[in-house]
Amino acid sequence: MVSGVNENLNGSPNKPSPYTQATKDEVSVSQKTKKKRQQRAQSRLALARYRQQQREQRQKTAAQRSEKQWNKTLRQLADLGATLDQHEVHVDDREMMVYEVTFEGKNHHFGTRFRLQRWLKRERQRKVEEQMSWAERHVQWMIMNNCDDHGNPWPE
């Protein structure tokens, strides 16, 4: 029996084999999964690049901030009348920067910039307190003498 439709031995028309259909689906599925995998990989790479750029930007900003802070420290030391000497010292096969501050005839040694800045903050605070106590004494003098800053009597 010859007809336009393939028939099997039972005489019913042939259905396409489930195996051949699965292979076509698998090809399209594997292509889809490959594409998705590639997209995820590209997304991860883009995210890694973005994070690297952010990290570099943060490091650059931190370096600028640190440099600005150090310049401020040097300026404050000069305002205080202190002198700073920096020299490298070899300790345990490493080079370390040592900071030596001469202030009011005394030498102060610091191993880090941070310690120097802490010391500077304390000294500046001490100076402010000294000035404040002078101001307080001055106000007391004005009250006792009943006059203004220049010794002029208060108006009646």
What does this structure look like?
The protein has about 160 residues and is an alpha+beta fold. It has a domain at about 55-145. About 60% of the residues lie in helices and about 15% in strands. The chain is built from two helices and three strands, in the order αβββα. It has helices spanning about 20-80, 115-145; strands at about 85-90, 95-105, 105-110. Strands 1-2-3 form a three-stranded antiparallel β-sheet, covered by helices on one side. A hairpin with a 2-residue loop joins strand 2 and strand 3 (about 105-110). The N and C termini lie far apart (about 135 Å).
Tell me roughly what share of residues is in helical segments.
55-70%
Strand order of the largest sheet: 1-2-3
Rg of Cα set: 41 Å
Low-pLDDT runs: none
Q: What is the strand content?
A: 15-25%
Note the overall shape. elongated
Mean pLDDT: 84
| Ends apart, CA distance between termini | 137 Å
What's the β-strand tally? 3
Largest sheet: 3 strands, antiparallel
Number of helices: 2
Report a brief summary of the structure.
This protein has a domain at 57-145. The chain is 62% helix and 15% strand.
Give the topology, please.
Elements: H1 18-80, E1 83-91, E2 94-103, E3 106-110, H2 113-145
Antiparallel strand pairs: 1-2, 2-3
